[in-house]
Design brief:
Layout lengths: L18 E3 L2 H8 L8 E8 L5 H14 L5 E3 L10 E4 L8 E2 L7 H11 L10 E7 L9 E2 L3 E2 L19 E8 L5 H16 L44 E9 L11 H19 L7 E7 L15 E7 L1 H4 L7 H17 L7 H6 L6 H14 L7 E8 L15 E5 L8 E8 L2 E9 L5 H17 L5
Parallel strand pairs: 5-6, 11-13, 13-15
Antiparallel strand pairs: 1-4, 2-9, 2-14, 3-4, 6-9, 7-8, 10-16, 11-12, 15-16
C-alpha cells in the first residue's frame, strides 16, 4: 500500500500528496461513466436503536484514518497523460456522515439518492453515509417514480422478527464503484462500529466445508464464446436510471453434507428465474451466462481497500433450464457446484486478459477511453445475461453498542446498466436472506421487478431438495 502524504516539518517545502495509478478495474469503470446511470453501490444497514450524531461522525473519521486507502480522490491531469491516478489525502475533503431530516419519505429518498447521485471522484473519500433515524420496521412496501418498488419482507414473515419499530436506524452507504466495492466499504463500516460501540467486530471464521467428489461435467455446457441470452424487455419506464427492490427471505434449506453451497442455490434460482421470464416474454431460447464476483481478500483489518473482486462467468444451456422438474434439481445443483468450484479455482485477471491489455499505459488515457467505450458497445451482444453478487453471510457483527444495537438486515445493490440491465445481489444475517434486485429503467419497470422477485422466491424454494 502506498503511504499517505505526511506534512513537511517546519522549514521544509510542502511535498505533493502520494499518488497511485488506477488499477485495471478502476480505469475501465472510469472510462465508461454515465450521468444517466451512475456507477454506485448501495449498502443499507438496519439497526434496532438510535445513533448519536457527533459520536458516529468521530467513529467514521477514525475508521477512515485506520483504512487510509479509502481516502482518495482523482488527481487532475492533462489529456495526454498515460494513466488516471488516485491522490491519497491526509483526511476527508468533505463530511462523510449526514443525518437527513426524518420524515415519512426519508427512507425512500435515501434509496433514491443512492441510485442517482454518486459521490464525486474529485473529493476524498468517494463514499457517502446517510443516517435515517426513526426509520420504522423493515417490512412494508412503498413505490417511488425515482427508485421503483422498494418493498421489503413481502410474504416472508420479516415483520415478525424485526425489532426497533419507530426507534430504528438505517445507514445508507453510497459508494462510487470506480473507487471501491461493497465488501471493502463494509470492512470500514465494521471498524467504525467497533470504535462507536466498543464491542468486538472482528470477522467470524468462514464456515468449514468439505469438498465431495465432483460429478462428471455436463456435456452440453455452452461455450463462453456463444452469444448469451439477454433479459427480455418488460415495461420500460420513460425516465433514465435504475430501479430497486429489496426483500427479506428465509435462507434456503440445504441438507448437511450437500455437495453444493447456498451460492449454488442462488445461482440456480437466478438462472431458472430468467429462463422463466424470457419464456413468458417470447424470447428465443439461448444459453444463459451469469457473472459472479469472487472475492479472495481477508476480512480482517488487513483487507485491501478498493475494487478487489475478480469476475467469472457461469454458463447454463437452454436444455438445462427448460422443462424443469423437481426430479431434475439435484443434478442441476451438482453441475452448478462443479462449475463454480472450477471457475473459482482458475487464476484469472480481475476483468480478464483483454482488459489488462486495454489499460496498458502505451497511449494517452483519453485515447484508450474512447477505444474502451467503442469496444464495450461492440461487445454488448456477448456480455453476460446478468450479474449475481452473493456477499454471503455478513462476517462482522456490525454491533454499535447497547443503544444502537446490532445490524439485523444488510442489503447491497450493484449497478445495473445495459446491456445486462439487471443485477441480483444477496447477503445474509441471522438465517435471513436479504435480496436486492436492481434494473435499468430502460429495460424494466417496478412491476417487472416485483414479478421477478416472486419468480426468484419460488425457484429458491425449489432448490430445497434432498440430494
Amino acid at each position: 500500500m502506498t503511504a499517505l502524504h505526511q506534512p513537511a516539518r517546519a522549514g521544509e517545502p510542502l511535498r505533493p500528496p502520494a499518488r497511485i495509478p488506477f488499477p485495471v478495474v478502476d480505469e475501465v469503470a472510469r472510462h465508461c461513466l454515465q450521468d444517466e446511470e451512475p456507477e454506485t453501490v448501495h449498502v443499507e444497514v438496519h439497526l434496532p436503536g438510535r445513533l448519536e450524531q457527533g459520536r458516529l461522525r468521530a467513529a467514521f473519521a477514525e475508521a477512515l484514518r485506520r483504512h487510509p486507502r479509502i481516502l482518495v480522490r482523482e488527481a487532475p491531469g492533462r489529456w495526454y497523460r498515460r494513466r488516471y491516478e488516485w491522490e491519497l489525502t491526509a483526511g476527508p475533503d468533505v463530511e462523510v456522515v449526514s443525518f437527513p431530516v426524518p420524515g415519512r419519505d426519508a427512507l425512500r429518498d435515501a434509496r433514491t439518492r443512492a441510485l442517482t447521485q454518486a459521490p464525486p471522484l474529485s473529493l476524498s473519500p468517494p463514499i457517502r453515509v446517510e443516517v435515517v433515524q426513526g426509520a420504522g420496521p423493515v417490512e412494508g412496501s412503498e413505490a417511488t417514480d425515482a427508485v421503483g418498488d422498494t418493498g421489503a419482507g413481502r410474504g416472508s414473515g420479516a415483520a415478525a422478527h424485526r425489532p426497533g419499530g419507530a426507534q430504528g436506524t438505517v445507514l445508507f452507504l453510497t459508494i462510487n464503484h470506480t473507487a471501491l466495492d461493497g465488501p471493502a466499504c463494509l470492512r470500514v463500516l465494521a471498524t467504525a462500529a467497533q470504535i462507536y460501540g466498543g464491542t468486538d467486530n472482528s470477522p467470524a471464521a468462514p464456515p468449514v466445508r468439505t469438498t465431495p467428489e465432483a460429478p462428471p461435467p455436463y456435456e452440453d455446457t455452452p461455450s463462453n464464446w456463444s452469444r448469451p441470452a439477454r433479459v427480455a424487455p418488460g415495461t420500460p419506464e420513460p425516465s433514465p436510471g435504475n430501479g430497486l427492490l429489496v426483500t427479506d427471505l428465509r435462507l434456503p434449506h440445504r441438507p448437511k453434507g450437500s455437495p453444493y453451497t447456498v451460492n449454488d442455490q442462488l445461482m440456480v434460482s437466478t438462472a431458472l428465474t430468467l429462463a422463466h421470464w424470457n419464456r413468458e416474454h417470447g424470447a428465443e431460447p439461448r444459453p444463459l451466462r451469469i457473472t459472479m464476483p469472487v472475492d479472495d481478500r481477508p476480512r480482517d483489518a488487513s483487507m485491501p481497500i478498493g475494487n478487489g473482486t475478480r469476475l467469472v462467468e457461469v454458463p447454463f444451456s437452454p436444455e438445462e433450464l427448460a422443462a424443469h422438474t423437481p426430479a431434475d434439481m439435484p443434478a442441476l445443483l451438482h453441475r452448478t457446484a462443479t462449475r463454480t468450484r472450477a471457475l473459482k479455482s482458475l487464476p484469472r485477471p480481475q476483468l480478464g486478459h483483454g482488459a489488462a491489455l486495454l489499460t496498458a499505459p502505451v497511449a494517452p488515457v483519453a485515447w484508450r477511453a474512447a477505444l474502451t467505450r467503442g469496444l464495450r458497445r461492440a461487445a454488448a451482444p456477448w456480455t453476460s445475461t446478468t450479474l449475481l453478487s452473493n456477499i454471503g453471510r455478513i462476517p462482522y457483527a456490525l454491533d454499535f453498542g447497547a443503544e444502537a444495537g446490532r445490524a439485523h438486515a444488510v442489503w447491497f445493490s450493484a449497478p445495473a446498466r445495459m446491456p445486462r440491465g439487471l443485477t441480483v445481489t444477496t447477503a445474509s444475517t441471522a438465517g435471513r436472506l436479504h435480496l436486492a434486485l436492481r434494473w435499468s429503467r430502460s429495460l424494466l419497470g417496478h412491476g417487472d421487478g416485483a414479478h421477478l422477485r416472486d419468480l426468484f422466491e419460488h425457484y429458491l424454494h425449489t432448490t430445497e431438495v434432498t440430494p
